[in-house]
Amino acid sequence: MVPLNGSGVNWPLQAPSPQDRRWLRVEDVSAVAACRNAALNLAERLRFPATRTDQLALAVTEAASNLHKHATAGFLWLGVNRDGDPPAIDLDTIDAAPGLPDVPAAQRDGHPTAGTLGIGLGAIQRLADSCDLYSRPGRGTALAARFRPRGATFPAATHWAGLIRPIDGETECGDAYAAAFAGDTITAVMCDGLGHGPLAAAAAAAGVAAFLDDPSGDPAALLGRVHRRMAGTRGGAVGVVQLGDGIARFSGLGNIAASILAEGRRKSMISIPGIAGHQARTIRQFDYELPPGAAVVLHSDGVSARWEAAALPALETRDPLVIAAVLLAEAGVHRDDAGILVLKP
């Protein structure tokens, strides 16, 4: 994490640009090669060492093969992770079914799965710098793995992760996010530009840029600045959250959903009706208790707000990238841009 000003603020997380991310639908065997090629292209652009590139390509091939052979409605995500220096590549897979009856067994090399050798998940876990898996029988599986160049410097703990997915047929996504550390405090923003396509993406980018000017203020003040900066765009929905000292402080305008996930329960935070950049009669901030071990989730309306914590036992204990993937698989809407950000203080 690289400090960017004298106040000690840094911001290692932003939603990846179109050239830094790939969403690939895995429906047939040809998709496996497409996933492998996408990984190779990203690794080449980031100048990964040859050995690490080969390991990434093998892991992606195994992950895509698992989706093709065993899953329904499978997708594979590759994204550049700029939390450290040099950048890394994150791998995610999500699917709708059938889920794994025994996750620890499935992660062991040689465990048979649907009549195959079952080496894929164990290989991915062995090759990745970090790997996490969440599955429920009859529902689906989400996998998250991170691949860093050898010798890369990254934070010891992963405090956040996000995913964005443009509406089918678009490259640019109207949802964007950013997060920053200031001391022990995490502050983050989620923006959902109105509509979709380049104009929505430009609106969201303007909101994120306003936040990044100085993310050290309180959420209401930051939202006010974002609202003013988005006046020259088509506008959108914005949520700003700040986590520290056991408190979650939230200020929202429009339909950004914000929740605290803890102990199998979900506590929703309040967002005020309006359109950032155009209509904001009032901007208010609300404080909520943040239990130990909680995860905070922000998402756009491209992820349905109807997901239930009770159906996702112990999800808050997992890697933030897995949490984001599970919720996108559980509640993502393909007829809209989708953006989700998960924070774990």
The ordered string of helix (H) and strand (E) elements is EEHHEEHHEEEEEHHEEEEEEHE
**Biggest sheet: strands, sense, closure?**
6 strands, antiparallel
Distance linking N and C termini = 15 Å
Any idea of the CATH topology of the largest domain?
A: Phosphatase 2c, domain 1
Instruction: Quote the average pLDDT.
Output: 89
Class derived from helix and strand content: alpha+beta
Which shape, going by the Cα principal axes?
globular
Instruction: Please give the count of helices.
Output: 7
The name of the CATH superfamily of the largest domain reads: PPM-type phosphatase domain
Percentage of residues in DSSP E strands? 25-35%
- Do you know the CATH architecture of the largest domain? 4-Layer Sandwich
Q: Give the total of beta strands.
A: 16
Q: Pick out the low-confidence regions.
A: 1-7, 110-118
What would you say this structure looks like, in words?
The structure is a single chain. With 345 residues, the chain is of the alpha+beta class. It has 2 domains: 18-147, Histidine kinase-like ATPase, C-terminal domain (Heat Shock Protein 90, 2-Layer Sandwich), CATH 3.30.565.10; 157-343, Phosphatase 2c, domain 1 (4-Layer Sandwich). Helix content is 26%, strand content 31%. The chain has helices at 30-45, 50-70, 103-106, 120-127, 198-213, 219-229, 320-331; strands at 9-14, 21-26, 74-81, 88-94, 130-136, 140-147, 160-165, 175-182, 185-193, 236-244, 247-253, 257-262, 265-269, 286-289, 295-299, 338-343. The chain has a 6-stranded antiparallel sheet with strand order 1-8-9-10-11-14. A hairpin with a 6-residue loop joins strand 3 and strand 4 (88-94). Helix 1 runs antiparallel to helix 2 (50-70), helix 2 runs antiparallel to helix 4 and helix 5 (198-213) crosses helix 6. The longest helix has 21 residues, at 50-70. It is globular, with a radius of gyration of 19 Å.
